[in-house]
Amino acid sequence: ERPGACLLDIGAGAAGLSITLCQTFPHLAAVALEPAEHPAAIGERHVREAGLAARVTVRRQRVEHMEDVETFDL
Fold it and tell me: Which helix (H) or strand (E) holds 19?
């Protein structure tokens, strides 16, 4: 609930968890990691359709390649 809080959703698939949590917590932002092309594309579409493109970012990246791990609260 804290302004500026950020979620890291690993293996996000179609970004359902990120979308649901950002809808529930209006100050939350999320980074949804999904390296697989097809689920990531679906996730990006779901994020746009939910109107959350400013708060949810879908990255086509594996967690072991991340450098900004300290950014996240959950």
Answer: helix 16-24
Residue with tokens 């959950």: 74
Quick one: average pLDDT of 44-66? Answer: 96
Taking every pair of C-alpha atoms in the chain, what is the biggest distance, in angstroms?
A: 33
Residue 69 pLDDT > 90: no
Q: What tokens were used for 58? A: 């879908």
Strand partners, 58: 32
31 strand-pairing partners: 8, 57
- Name the pTM for this structure: 0.91
60 conformational bin, left if phi > 0, alpha if psi -120 to 50, beta if neither: beta
Question: Which CATH superfamily is 6-68 part of?
Answer: Vaccinia Virus protein VP39 (3.40.50.150)
Instruction: Name the CA radius of gyration of the chain, rounded.
Output: 11
Q: What is the DSSP string of 43-54?
A: HHHHHHHTT-TT
